[in-house]
Structure formats: structure tokens, C-alpha cells
Amino acid sequence: MIIALLRQRDFGLLFFGQTASMAGDAPAALATAFAVLEIGGSPTALGVVLAARYLPLAALLLLGGVLADRFPRRGLMIASDVVRASTQAVLAAMLFVGDAELWLFIVVQIVYGGAEALFRPALAGHLPHIVPRESLREANALVAMSANLLRITGPGLGAVAISALGPGAVLAMDAVTFGVSALLLAAMRHRPEAARTVPERLLPALRTGWREVRSRTWLWASILNFTVFGAVTVPAMLVLGPEVARLELGGADGWAVIMATYAAGALAGSVIAMRVPVARPAAACAVLLVVAAARPAVLLSGLGLAVLGVYSLLSGAAVAMTYVYWRTVLQQRVPATALSRVSSIDDFGTMLLTPVGYLGAGPLAAAVGMHGAMVLLAAVPVAASLVTFAVPGVRAVRAAEEQSPMSSGVTTPAATSRAPSR
Predict the structure, then answer these.
(1) With contact defined as beta carbons under 8 Å apart, do 357 and 182 qualify?
(2) How far is it, in rounded angstroms, from Cα 101 to Cα 309?
(3) Which of 217, 207, 203, 382 is nearest to 287 (CA)?
């Protein structure tokens, strides 16, 4: 199945282009951090630089979804790659000549984040256009496998490259990989896309996307669950996890084991999701997130590093499988004319409260203690996932239908209310 998918010309070009750009991105993130510190930036300054990419990404995702449902998605993806290649090339050039300043890093990250906000919903909407419906799960799993493998190997390779060549060279290579991705996307065959929505102004177009989400109980309930997970579990692990490791797991070495096993589990989960279909994907996602959401409490269980490593591996697998099953059911069940907008709403919801979680995790631990905070930050998303699983519409939605909704136009609220699985 993998070979057959990669032999499909357009998917192969998309896959190898994405793999190339991600291969450049993983070391480039580390290179950016070192470059900021090398020019005299403080950890606080580095936080500002990183936030400068995140904020426009979150703010512009919904606009990106509207544009991707209105204009040719492949063209938007190429434009995004070209912009990101340019930002990394400018930053690399300034580092080479010794003229980089903190404000430049911030501007580059803002532009980069805005371009990524355009790319994400366009990619989500374009994949079903080039892959047969019955192969969507395998295609999503392949993309996830590539990303997870590069997340495991990227930081190590980046550290070696930075040591040997310097941050500027690593950022220059990232610019080249975005150029490769743009060229491969441009080489794809031109295919007329499904009928587009009637051109609307921005706000009406956004309302149409929200209507698509509201009309499907399984969809909005799951997005709310992902919002809770992103706001609670992720900050709990990334903000409080290192301190727990310092106090109870031997410090940095113990934390490295936890992070490495999680990444390895994510890679394994992508492989499993490719091989193992599920009949009720929305329900499966809710159950899988129960496993991942319990991770903060398990970290403080005192079970020992070996057991915690195994659980971290299972958590990584659960998150990766959730990603594959969820992306696939969206592509199968949401009309092509609204898919990018719905995907952007999904991504927006997932990251909406994450900054609040980052800001609140530390004060919560100070108020109730580390153990109390980690237990609470596990209990809330576990409960949210169990409530999501209890929603009848979530348990009812199936992985496939006899007729693909991608061939239809935007569904009306009346039509969606009659669908048996919503």
C-alpha cells in the first residue's frame, strides 16, 4: 500500500516535498534558538521570538481556511513555501554577514507564522483531491510518519549541523528545502477542483464554516475535547514536566528518556494507524486521548523511569493515531467546498487556549503543589475525553459512507440534521 501510494504521482510529489520541508524545519527551530542567544538575546527574548511565530499562526488560521476554500489550494501552498523560503534565506544572510538583530528575528517569525496559517488549511483540503478516498487513512499516516521520524532525528542532526556549520547555514538549508517543496508542488498535475463555494465576504464565509461545524455533533464535541487537551495536557507536560523530572526522575537524563519514548511512540502510532482501521473513528479518538491525557498524573506515580518510559511511548502512539484517524474522518465526512475552513476551525480550537495553559500551569502548581497540579491537569482532560465518548453522535459516526460528501456542495443545516451519524 505504501509503495502504491507513493507511485501515485501527485501524492508522491506532495509527500516528498513535505518531507523535505520538514527535514529543514526540525533543525532550523534549534538553529533559531541558538542564533537568538548568540546575538546576545536572553531566554525571555527567545520566548518573544517563538511567540512571534505562534500568534499570527493562531490569528490567521481562520482566514487561511476561507482563502483555501475560495482559491486553488495548490497555488496557496506554493505561495506559502516561497514566503517561508524567503524569510529563512533573509535571516540566514543576515547571520552570515553578522547583521542580525532581535527585531529581525521577530519580524521573520511573524511573516513565517502568517504563511504557515495559509499552508495548513490548504494542505488539509488538497489531500483528498489527489488521493483516492479509500486511501486517505494511509496517506495521512504516511505524512504523520515522516513528520514524527523527523521530530525524533531533527534536533540531533540540527545540533551536529549547528556545531559544524553554524545557525546561518542550517537556516539557509531550511530555505532550500522550502524551495524544493514549492518546486515539487508546482510539478503536480493541474486538476480542476470540486465546485467552489459561491464567493462570500470574509465574515459570511467564516459563518458558513462554523455552520458546518455546528451541524455535526461529533465534530464540535471532538473539537471542544481537543481544545481542553491542548490547553491542559500539553502545558502540564512542557511547563511542569521538566521540574518533575528534576525532582523525581534524575533531571535532564530522565526527561530525555520521557521525551524520546514519546517521540518513538508517535512514530509507532502512525504505523499502527496506517495498518489498523477503526469503524468509529471519532469515538476511537476520544478513547485514545484518555490514555494521553492521563500522562501528567502518571509522571508522578512513582512507578520508576522504565515504566514511565513505556507509558510515554503509549501516549505518543495514542496522539499520533488520533491525528491520523481524525484527519481522515474529516476528509471523508466534510464537503470539499468547506473542508479547509472546517480544518482551520479545528486547528484554531486545538491551540486556542494553549497560551492560557502555558501561563497558568506554574501559578497552579504554586497554589496547590506540584502533585495536586499534575493530578488536576490530568483529571480535567480525561474527564473531557470520557464526556466526549459519551456523546451519542461521537460514538455513531463511522469511518466511511456509501457516498462521499466530497462530491457534494456545502450541506445545509437541514440536510446535516438528518444524517444518521451526527
Answers:
(1) no
(2) 40
(3) 382
* 297 alpha-carbon distance from chain centroid: 24
> What mean pLDDT value characterizes the chain?
83
Where are the alpha helices (H) located in 334-369, listed in sequence order? 339-352, 354-368
- Top pLDDT among 330 and 388 is at 388
Q: Give me the mean pLDDT over the 83-91 stretch.
A: 94
Dihedral sign for Cα 102, 106, 112, 116, please. Answer: positive
- Reported pTM: 0.74
Q: How far is CA 149 from CA 4, 112, 142, 152, in A?
A: 21, 23, 11, 5
Residue 401 has phi, psi (to 5 degrees) of: -125, 165
Buried b (16+ CB within 10 A) or exposed e, 162-188: beeebbbbbbbbbbbbbbbbbebbeeb
Q: Residue 274 is which amino acid?
A: M
Hey, is 334 helix, strand or coil?
coil
Hey, what domains does the chain have and what are their CATH numbers?
2-193 (1.20.1250.20), 206-417 (1.20.1250.20)
pLDDT band for 231, please (50, 70, 90 cuts).
confident
**d(Cα 251, Cα 333) in Å, to the nearest integer?**
45
Q: What is the pLDDT of residues 164-185, one digit of tens each?
A: 888 899 899 999 999 999 999 9
Query: What is the maximum span of the chain, computed from C-alpha positions, in angstroms?
Result: 63
pLDDT in tens, 360-416: 888 888 899 888 989 999 999 999 999 999 999 999 998 764 334 333 333 333 333
CA trace torsion 229, 321, 154, 17 (10° rounding): -110
Q: Which residues, 6 or more positions from 376, have their beta carbon under 8 angstroms from its beta carbon?
A: 364, 368
Whether residue 140 is predicted with pLDDT greater than 50 in this model: the reply is: yes
- Residue labelled with grid coordinates 455533533: 217
Q: Report the Cα 387 to chain-centroid distance in Å.
A: 23
Identity of the amino acid at 382: V
DSSP string, 130-194: HS-GGGHHHHHHHHHHHHHHHHHHHHHHHHHHHHHH-HHHHHHHHHHHHHHHHHHHHTSPP-PPS
- Conformation bin of residue 340: beta by default, left when phi > 0, alpha when psi is -120 to 50: alpha
